[in-house]
Amino acid sequence: MTRHHPDSLTLMEYSAGNLSEPRALCIRLHLEQCPECRGRVDTLDSLGAVMMDQQPKVSVSDTSFEQLMARIDEAPEDTSPVAEAPKVSPLQKLLGQDINDLPWKRQLGDVSVLDITDKFPDQHDRVVLQKLVAGGKAPAHTHKGDETTVILQGAFSDQNGVFNQWDFVSLDEHDEHRPVAVGNEDCITLSVLSAPVKLTGTFTRLLNPFIR
C-alpha cells in the first residue's frame, strides 16, 4: 500500500498535462498502484472536461483552486482494488529491460546510478535511476532545486519516515536527508532533478564540485 502521495496541486498539473514528460512518468507509475490518487485524477479529469465545456461562463477568482480541491475531497473515494501491475510497465518499455539488469555505475559508497536523461530529448531536468544496496546508506545531502522521486523497488527510510515501493517523494532545497535502504532487497528509485544534489557530510561535501 502506498502511503506517500503527490499533493493536490501536482495531481492537478498532471491532469492538465502541464508536467514535463519525466515528472509525468513518476506520477503515472505511482497512479498504477494507488487507487486513492487514481480516483482524484479521474475526478480532476472529469471536472476539467466540464470546465472546458462551460469555459465562456467560468470566471476565475482567488478561491477557485480551493473550491476545486473541496469538490475533489467531497467526491466518493475510489475503493476499487489495486490493479495488477502491467506485464510491461512504461518504464520497462522506455528502458528495454528489467531495472535489475541495467548497467549500473557505482557513484558513492552504497549508491549506484544510471543517468537516463537522454531518453527524454529537449528536457531541462536530469533524469536518473538510483540504487541503494540493501541495508546501505546514502550520503547526507540536500538539494539545490526540486527533486521528484518514485520508489520502484524496495524501501528506504529517513527522518520523514519509511518510503515503500511506488511511494512518491517531492523534495527541495529545504530538505536534508540521508536515506537508508530497509528490508532485504536493493532500493531502486527514479528521480527527476532540476539541479544537482548538495552533499552535506563532513567529508563528502568536498566532492560537491564533482557531483553533477
| β-strand number | 12
What is the percentage of strand-forming residues?
Answer: 15-25%
Task: Indicate the overall shape.
Answer: globular
Strand order of the largest sheet: 1-2-3-11-5-8
Helical stretch tally: 5
Question: Portion of residues in helices?
Answer: 25-40%
Structural class: alpha+beta
Name the CATH homologous superfamily of the largest domain: Jelly Rolls
Largest sheet: 6 strands, antiparallel
Q: Order of SSEs, N→C?
A: HHHHHEEEEEEEEEEEE
Query: So what's the CATH class of the largest domain?
Result: Mainly Beta
Q: In terms of per-residue confidence, which ranges show pLDDT below 50 for 5 or more consecutive residues?
A: 202-211
Organism: Marinobacter persicus
Domain ChrR-like cupin: 98-190
Protein name: ChrR-like anti-ECFsigma factor
InterPro entries: Anti-sigma_ChrR, Anti_sigma_zinc_sf, ChrR-like_cupin_dom, RmlC-like_jellyroll, RmlC_Cupin_sf
Task: Write out key terms for the chains shown.
212 residues, alpha+beta, three-stranded antiparallel beta sheet, 26% helix
Helix and strand topology:
Blueprint: H1 8-15, H2 21-31, H3 35-53, H4 64-74, H5 90-95, E1 105-108, E2 111-115, E3 126-132, E4 141-143, E5 147-153, E6 155-158, E7 161-163, E8 168-171, E9 176-177, E10 180-182, E11 187-193, E12 197-199
Antiparallel strand pairs: 1-2, 2-3, 3-11, 4-9, 4-12, 5-8, 5-11, 6-7, 6-10
Helix pairs in contact: 1-3
